[in-house]
Amino acid sequence: MCIRDSINAEYGGGAAKEMGNGASEMRAEANVLVVGMAQCGKKTVLDALSEVYGAGETTNVAYAASKGAVMRSITPMGMKLNLFKLPLQDLADGAAFHSLGQFLSDPKNSEGFVPTGVDGVILILDAADLASDYKLQPKVVKALERPLRNMMIKGGCRNAALLIYVNKYDLLRKEKQSEEDYMSVVSQVGNIVAAEFKWCAPLVMAANCFTIKAREPRSMEDGIIWLCSVLAHTGVDNPNK
């Protein structure tokens, strides 16, 4: 719904422009991984983003033996985002993630994306996985931690922006709850979940957390605007320039 100051301040969201490489160009294209727990709404999010920002043909790309991703490109704010949806557990496989990084960095690829490696990650969480205190349930934290830490500790996201979406925020509404109280809870959830990912701070370039309802595509706009703004000012399409 809105930018989460608790995570943005520590992760440098507002100062992201100062973290660029000094080049005068602005990035026009980026590669973004889309991951999350089963049933969190990854496909619904991709379909909704495609509805708002248009999308090219969906293709399956293989980056390692028996490993692949579903690729779809959208163009928000004039920037082409190549979205790669892949199983969360594939990130826990160090060899597979290394192959993915090499694949996305190979200038000889012919899959229609820019060879800049992993530029961003969209992590989709399900509001149904929150406990009564609005923190992620321990079993969910455990399931997320290994693949995310493996990806980040190996340096795969050092120059990437992390966008966290807490999907299905409508599940947070209680019976007879006023609209004001409901929206206050939705806002609190973004901050509480954001705080659970502060350990990522030294391992990514920038991060932010937003609550969304994927079946209402416009609810994702704030997050995409933030992601594009960060990426536009922190790299150029040709890393060899």
Spell out the key features of this protein.
disordered N terminus, 32% helix, alpha/beta, disordered C terminus, 7 strands
Protein topology:
Layout: H1 5-11, E1 29-36, H2 42-53, E2 59-64, E3 67-74, E4 80-85, H3 94-105, E5 120-126, H4 138-153, E6 161-167, H5 179-195, E7 206-211, H6 221-232
Parallel strand pairs: 1-4, 1-5, 5-6, 6-7
Antiparallel strand pairs: 2-3, 3-4
Quick take:
This protein has 241 residues and is an alpha/beta fold.
The average pLDDT score comes to 84
Give start-end ranges of low-pLDDT stretches: 1-24, 237-241
Q: Note the overall shape.
A: globular
Q: Using DSSP, what is the number of strands? A: 7
Radius of gyration: 17 Å
Order of helices and strands: HEHEEEHEHEHEH
**What percentage of the residues does DSSP assign to strands (E)?**
15-25%
Number of helices: 6
Report on the biggest sheet: 7 strands, mixed
- Spatial arrangement of strands, main beta sheet: 2-3-4-1-5-6-7
Termini gap: 37 Å
Q: Tell me the helix content.
A: 25-40%
Classification by helices and strands: alpha/beta
